[in-house]
Amino acid sequence: MRLSQSFIPTLKEIPKEAQIISHRLMLRAGLVRQTSSGIYTWLPMGLRVLRRISNIIREEQDRINAQEILMPTVQSAELWRRSGRYDAYGPEMLRIQDRHKRELLYGPTNEEMITDLFGQSIKSYKDLPQVLYQIQWKFRDELRPRFGVMRGREFLMKDAYSFDIDYASALTNYYRMVLSYLRIFQRLGVRAVPMRADTGPIGGDLSYEFLILAPTGESSVFYDAVLEEQDWLAEVVDYNSPEALEAFFRRLTVPYAATDEVHNIEAWEAVPTERRREGRGIEVGHIFYFGTKYTKSMGITVSGHDGLPFYPEMGSYGIGVSRLVGAIIEAQHDENGIIWPESVAPFRAVILNLKSGDNVCDNVCERLYMAAPQQLLYDDRMERAGVKFADADLMGHPWQIIVGARGASAGIVELKHRATGERREVSIDNVLTFIMAS
Ligand code: 5CA
Question: CATH fold of 349-437, please?
Answer without folding.
Answer: Rossmann fold (3.40.50)
